Predict the 3D structure of the following.
Amino acid sequence: MGGDGQTGGRAAAPAIELKGISKAFGPVQANRDISLRVMPGTIHGIVGENGAGKSTLMSILYGFYKADAGEILIGGQRTQIPDSQAAIRAGIGMVFQHFKLVENFTVLENVILGVEEGRLLKPSLAKARGVLKSLAEDYELNVDPDALIEELGVGMKQRVEILKALYRQADILILDEPTGVLTPAEADHLFRILKNLKSEGKTIILITHKLREIMAITDTVSVMRRGQMTATLETAQTSPEELAELMVGRKVLLRIDKKPATPGRTVLEVENLRVTDEDGVERLKGVSLNVRAGEILGIAGVAGNGQSQLLEVLGGMIPGTGTVRINGDAIDLTGRHSDGQSRRARGIAHVPEDRQREGLIMPFMAWENVVFGYHHDPAYQKNRALMDNAGIRRLAEEKMERFDVRPPNPGLAARNFSGGNQQKIVLAREIERNPDLLLVGQPTRGVDIGAIEFIHQRILDLRDAGKAVLLVSVELEEILSMSDRIAVMFDGRIMGERLPGETDEMELGLMMAGMNGKAA
Amino acid sequence: MRDVMPKWADVVLIPLISLVLAFLLSAVVIIAIGEDPVAAVKMMVTGALGSTYAWGYTLYYATNFIFTGLAVAVAFHAKLFNIGGEGQATLGGLGVALVCLALPWPHWTLALPAAVIGAALFGAAWAAIPAWLQAKRGSHIVITTIMFNFIGAAVLNYLLVNVMRPVGSMDPATAKFPNGTHLPTLHDLLAPFGIAFSRAAPANISFLIAVAACILVYLLIWRTRLGYEIRAQGHSEPAAIYAGIRPVRIVMAAMLISGALAGLMAVNNVMGEAERLVLNSVEGAGFIGIAVALMGRSHPFGVFLAAILFGFLYQGGAELALWTDIPRELIVVIQALVILFTGALDNMVRMPLERLFLGLRKGRA
């Protein structure tokens, strides 16, 4: 234990310096000769597409992977980081995207977990209570130390993770996609905390794909592409457009160019829709909405407020009660006489939120996935008994060509494609069925910037072809830019509807937090 | 998650290396008890493959294992671990016996289709109850199928002793089936082609049915919609639900087919060989089917090859026990080692091999 507490002293030594870090996983060069200097007391952003190597780099820094080559200097001193214990001793704290907390422990118990001193818990707990109190005062990190983790919201859980790192005397804090699950207000609060930490001399590394956050809070920013550090810039001297271009390697349209909607007849009518899950918890508490032909209705909300259940019940995956009409005809919600198949037959296509768990069969080849859910269609059968595998393969080749799926090899298993290309396979399948209604959840989650543009355009094309689109996304920017109308969900209810031109992130953020925007 | 090895390495190289390791270890054991492994191998090969008589036994056993192996394989594709092949084959035997004894069958061409249906129906019925419990109640199929093995054995015991035993017989077995149910052996089938095949060996036309079953299972799994749905459900139930595939239906369908295949084994051993139903007619073939399916990577062709291998081990092992001082138990040890290496220790061979292939690819890149 102990470690070398001499962080101060040398004025110009970077808090972290990486020299020539390389790491390969088999044939994949995840990191190639990466060098990075982060000065103490600054916030440094790292941006890059999925698979650019950000997470690998941070895992090396935190001792999960060992670099094939290169060295790490902490506070100017060469440091070996063989495991996460060593990282903690070196003063590095990590806040993961997926929290690593014991749900049925209190905040205090979680904070001391792994660094308890002595045989009895009580002195450690008392000490932690004191430390937590002062941390809360210093950094606006208020959390009830006796609350159970399972009772806390995501924003609070994240604070506990930060407290854990600080309690271990971290001088360098790495945050991996910290705002993915936060409301805008919670994200703002997080940024205030980070600024406070920075002013106390802590060094912060922020990994994110949200360029807006980079611009708002970082001092310097590094861009990674294909395992290499392509640029390190002063944030003040760059722009989101430049960063996006550096990330993708070509010019990217950040703003969505769309024509005004020309809504037609009502395609989807939902009245008083309720869903109770297997645990008896009511997840949809009387949702009513409608979507017209030629428009996109965006559902905004923090993850876990019923949006998933809304998509699932409309897509026939789970039963519900209430009334749902498609083109004026009611559909069975009990699940006894209908399922995903009959929904598809009624002209409802569904791009599910989790393409790896639901939208695709990962070990299936691309061509097998291209008819998934439509495999009973007579067009895909060779005769009464057998499927027309050769025909489906040809179809897959064409679809992959049209949707620019790379590599365009229908014989490759779905798991071997990148997130963006997997999503394109799903979209190629669902959109080209020419549905009356497209349900689409998190269309660009985990998708590279380059593919985002393409996916958005295809959804807009479908809208312009006079189809109805129900879009669920936790990315507020996506909702604001894609939707023709926006409904905000909170706790299984629709909080209200807004027009994208007449609202902003502030108002939607309040509604997402359960406050009625107009009243607040 | 990414594929690191070419497919041929996965389906050919890994089982082959596992097999070699199992045999090497077996050799060590044979040396350890003071016998000559080379002589033992010679004995096994001659005993199992050296004559048409030997082949006749090897193929007879293989036929049993093809059916039970296919049964396990089909269920595997739906991610169901059907270890009830033993019980389903036992009940299949009951089906065959009831069919064969029901009518004075004039000719085997009439009796065989009926027996096939009887065997499949009874096997499927015995799998149906665990399947239903799994699909509707979530009772784990591993637990229920293995319990149904015991229930099946007890049911048969009761029926043979109290109901089906001919009056005056002291043997817990049915009467001999009528002559019209006698199935042609490979001797009978090959004679018209001028091929001399041992008259005494039990391999019979059921072997051809087993081969046909392999082809049908292949078509089912990879070419039909039901097979597509079974595989989809096996890989991801949430995805299956998304696609509108009903898990209950798939669990039932996969298990009924699985049970039917296991039941079909009875056409070979009950109708083709014993020509009457006796106690414990399955003799562990239901469990061997698990190893066969594991080794055959749940692919019908792999199951076919693995079944031949286990047929060889069974017959060769019997010969070894008969003609050498190597005790019968050692044969079980060798079979167990093969099962252990090809089934359970898959990763032991797979991981180094994957690393090797990664290295090779890196070298090329």
Remarks:
- The interface with chain A takes residues 1-4, 219, 222-225, 228-229, 231-232, 235-236, 238-239, 241-246, 358, 361-362, 365 of chain B (CB under 8 Å).
- The longest helix of chain B spans residues 108-137.
